[in-house]
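Form 12-C: Joint structure prediction
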Amino acid sequence: MSSRKQKLINDPSALLADMLTGFSAAYADVVRLTDNGLIVRRQPKPQGKVGLVIGNGSGHEPAMIGLVGEGLFDVNIPGEIFTAPGPERIVEGIRAADHGAGVLVCVSHHAGDLMNAEMALELCEMEDIENVDMVILYDDISSAPKGNEPERRGTAGLFFVWKMVGAFAETSDDLSACKAMAEKIRDNTRTLAMALTSCASPVTGEIMFEIADDEMEIGMGVHGEMGMGRQKIVSAEETIDLMLPPIIDDLPFKADDEVLVMLNNSGSMTLMELFILYKRVAEILQEKGIRVYKSWIGPYATTQEMAGFALSLCKVDDELKHLWDAPANGAYLKQL
Amino acid sequence: MSSRKQKLINDPSALLADMLTGFSAAYADVVRLTDNGLIVRRQPKPQGKVGLVIGNGSGHEPAMIGLVGEGLFDVNIPGEIFTAPGPERIVEGIRAADHGAGVLVCVSHHAGDLMNAEMALELCEMEDIENVDMVILYDDISSAPKGNEPERRGTAGLFFVWKMVGAFAETSDDLSACKAMAEKIRDNTRTLAMALTSCASPVTGEIMFEIADDEMEIGMGVHGEMGMGRQKIVSAEETIDLMLPPIIDDLPFKADDEVLVMLNNSGSMTLMELFILYKRVAEILQEKGIRVYKSWIGPYATTQEMAGFALSLCKVDDELKHLWDAPANGAYLKQL
Amino acid sequence: MTANIVITSQQLDDMIVAIAAQIAENRDLLNQLDSALGDGDHGTSISTAFSSAAEQVKQLEDAQPADILKTTASVVMNRMGGASGALFGTLFMKAALTAKDKTTLTKSDMDALWQAGLDGVKSRGKSDVGDKTMIDALSPAVQAFCGAQDFGSGWQSAAEAAQRGAKSTKTMIAKHGRAKFISERAIGHQDAGATSITLMFEAIYAYWKTLEGQD
Amino acid sequence: MTANIVITSQQLDDMIVAIAAQIAENRDLLNQLDSALGDGDHGTSISTAFSSAAEQVKQLEDAQPADILKTTASVVMNRMGGASGALFGTLFMKAALTAKDKTTLTKSDMDALWQAGLDGVKSRGKSDVGDKTMIDALSPAVQAFCGAQDFGSGWQSAAEAAQRGAKSTKTMIAKHGRAKFISERAIGHQDAGATSITLMFEAIYAYWKTLEGQD
Ligand SMILES: Nc1ncnc2c1ncn2[C@@H]1O[C@H](COP(=O)(O)OP(=O)(O)O)[C@@H](O)[C@H]1O
Ligand SMILES: Nc1ncnc2c1ncn2[C@@H]1O[C@H](COP(=O)(O)OP(=O)(O)O)[C@@H](O)[C@H]1O
Ligand SMILES: [Mg+2]
Ligand SMILES: [Mg+2]
Ligand SMILES: [Mg+2]
Ligand SMILES: [Mg+2]
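Section 2 - Result
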């Protein structure tokens, strides 16, 4: 499938700066852009609560700049397009998120994100910044087989973690409890993604990967990393019939489980298509007796204008439902 | 610019039914799909308040199904893709929105929407349904010259109307005051849109209009109607420099005016691009001394996967700011 | 070959069915025309609407001409939606009102039906000849029909006039509908709605010829 | 032509500049390689990083070798970001730690620097030879360099070994980085990071030849 190569940008080397300036101006009531390029809350969290930080490559907007705010992250350290920020910048983010009860660095599992977070924690040790820990998060079942979960990569399903660990950290002074909560949500979450088209890198202007007009790929990563394989495009129902059963079997999700469901738009899917896809998701879950607590459909973590979506399920108990329903006020994630 | 033609759907003749089933299942906490194909609030508005209704062609999701809910519409009557619903269906919508204080039918000005609404009101008269009125709304400065505002078409800027007249009707028992409020907001709102690519009709599978890979069109309508003319694609800054001044001059917006700003994603623009575009919008407004009260950036009224955006400004006074900040709880429009 | 003197309900039914078939056959052409000037859906929506109108009409029992026309109007209006649903619906609705209480339709009844339909469309659409719409086919066709002595020559000259009218839209700038926004760029393209009107008259005329062949 | 015995700070400076130039020249190639296996940005990010490292290094005054290497490490790590920022950064950071307090670098100093850098990259990346990464070029290059008697033959054999190592990645399945997710489909494509390592050694060797030509 074809993609547009031309984007409405200015100097490609100023992409990040331009974007952060525009974003922080538009949502000045929620966030602030610091001189060292961090996105922080307009109203910082009160002292004595655990700080929540994430560094990540940009190009996935609204992730993660749109998730800084009450009930969500304290600080986001946006890297260049699809490139995790370096260790010194992560340390700056950790400092900005420190409210005296420690800081949890969330890592969406990708090689660059992990290595830089590890180096940042080494720097913290050298610089005597205390009470910092990190948690490695993953959800994509296509990237490593069952049993090897820690090798899986982090994708759109981690929004369940961001939302709920964000709510938890809002009132917690216990860093290790925050980490345990993040791990609990991660271990309850499974995702599988697909794409119909490629997308262009805004940095190079080149198409990121090749895919034929009549083909789709199941198992697509959030940077256009290829997945489990190509096949001809099928109908919405057939697509869900291919994708949902492996997700259900992986956890496994069982009859009477309550779940959150997410259909994440990776870029240029229409909401119309996502609603049509969701219809089949709801049908299958009902057949299996799996109960939907709440659903999210929309662009959460994008891969530029790639046409595709990620389907995620997260099993919830009363504690998680409570965290889910807690207020959130990020520029791009609002919970009343 | 190229567009994908293949969509993830099932039977094209069941598009609307499939989409409404999926949407209403996903957001069952907010809306309900009635047997006659209306989207209504899960919790109806109390008796004695004015009902707010709109009928429109589908294919613009989240508009308008995503705007049914507290502080917004009572009822949406979704038509087939890009096709206004017929008069009998509109009358059904009016009946469903009637809570004893009359019903205001909002019309986004397009030939089909208007004619069918007029016919619906004639039917109401014949059937003795009383206290129904309609308001014709438009905002697109490219579709008729200044002085001929009532000939202009309705586009993304009408979201300002939906949000604020929705808040107004929530507590009003005065149909004519609701209509006057809608007109006030309309008369304060101006929009100009552009597109870089075409999109495919999900009904026919065909590309809706032709546009070369290196061209853009300013003045694009919400159904791919062509605008003021083609030109080569320019940078983000140059694009805003072409689009914002005519908007400012049209009202005109003046120094010390307070405004709401919207950058509506018509489909497959990246948020990254929209933030970069917004940076320039903020710069120009600041130069002119026009103050931004709040901004919205994202997909509100889409034209399938068309890559493009609409830029809208709405001048607000204290009354409108109050309505803007009032709570809203549609599936796709939340105000805390 | 003698001219039929009146149109029966059965014949009116058959005409609706013939129109539906003719339009269904040209669905892709109509979509194509509409995509040059509008949103490319005219063929799909009008063919769906007339197909279900034909279905509904067939199921009517002991129907008077007005019932057939009203059913057509209502199905077209509500199934088709959009501007053209309203306009094609109005055409049949005004005709239905004019046909009220008649059991068959004479040529002069039919003149009145078409005239009422045309007036209805004009006032609903706030449009007239020269605006690059269906009226550019409908208006000359109605005029030609009313000017003819009998049904046979009426249908023939109406079909021919509609055809000419539709072709004439090629050189026009649109004043209504989605096409009005593209101004000069509309030139060279034939209006989809005017083409549907032409197909409608052509279908009726072709059907009429089979009738005349029979007696 | 006699072999230089030690490397001075000035020469180390020049080497960083030479590496930056060589990588900048091959930016598009590196992007292309990375788009077959990864996200297509390797050329852009590594060339930007080394260009600013070269700038920064030029501005150092009275710098020891360790300062030059540490500056390079820090700029690469923090400007480049991503996996390769961490890995290329680690390579130079470990070398800097090993060069601590030295005013010039002998061949055996240099052996130790490279060895420390290689070990650092391996443990940071949890990877080894055969995983289709930069290590497939770096490891044989370091081995070849350390096995040579002097700088001249060391740089030459390192460049050649890196080249061979980079080519060998074509037939491998990736175990790390973004490329690991495409498994068999990675076969036939050369790893971008391994190619950068090769360009690095080629730049140093070419620079060294100009030095030897001078004396
Ligand atoms: N105001 C009007 N008066 C008469 N005919 C009109 C008017 N507006 C549109 N039309 C006709 O409707 C046709 C378009 O029909 P269609 O594509 O089905 O509707 P839509 O524009 O809602 O997609 C045009 O080709 C034109 O003939
Ligand atoms: N775990 C690892 N160990 C060693 N090298 C690695 C590892 N992961 C990635 N690399 C190297 O990094 C290169 C990719 O660099 P680059 O494209 O700049 O980073 P990113 O993958 O973050 O976009 C790969 O070609 C590979 O040589
Ligand atoms: Mg990268
Ligand atoms: Mg239409
Ligand atoms: Mg149309
Ligand atoms: Mg890369």
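Section 3 - Comments
Chain B touches chain A through 68 residues (CB under 8 Å). The radius of gyration of chain B is 19 Å.
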